[in-house]
Design brief:
Shape: elongated
Largest sheet: 2 strands, antiparallel
Order of helices and strands: HHEEHEEH
Structural class: mainly alpha
Strand content: 5-15%
Helix content: 55-70%
Number of strands: 4
Number of helices: 4
């Protein structure tokens, strides 16, 4: 029983549960945004009719292939992906870029082998080049 208790109390399990709940809630939010705002906007742009392909189908040897519903799902996926990209990913990348540009550089390139090394390094860990001569400039 103690092993089961440790399993339930692990931080990763709790974080995963929170991520699933937040993800499900966010999914509902995005679907509502697309269904209530984006799709009617597309309908307004296309003349008042919202695109619906659910009735499209074809028959081969007595078997009916209803491809219209699949087309609706593909379009819905593409619209949701575009909304997430433009309203979540792009703003987050800009925000992260704003935070990152204020950080002080902690790494530099080795002038010999072009490997990434710490700024305070006196010798390259990859090619063992002496970096003190390049950084120490004697006044003339």
């Amino acid at each position: 029983m103690s092993g089961f208790k440790k399993f339930l109390m692990r931080g990763n399990l709790v974080e995963l549960a929170i991520a699933v709940v937040v993800g499900a809630t966010f999914s509902g939010l995005v679907q509502a945004l697309v269904a209530d705002l984006i799709t009617p906007l597309i309908g307004a742009v296309t003349g008042g009719k919202q695109p619906d392909f659910s009735a499209y189908s074809f028959t081969v040897n007595g078997s009916e292939f209803k491809y219209g519903d699949f087309v609706n799902h593909v379009l819905t996926f593409l619209i949701i992906a575009a909304v997430i990209y433009w309203l979540v990913v792009v703003p987050m990348n800009r925000l992260i870029g704003l935070f990152d540009r204020d950080k002080e550089a902690t790494e530099k390139e080795c002038p010999e082998c072009l490997s990434t090394i710490p700024v305070k390094a006196r010798r390259c860990a990859f090619c063992t080049a002496d970096l003190t001569a390049a950084s120490e400039v004697s006044p003339a």
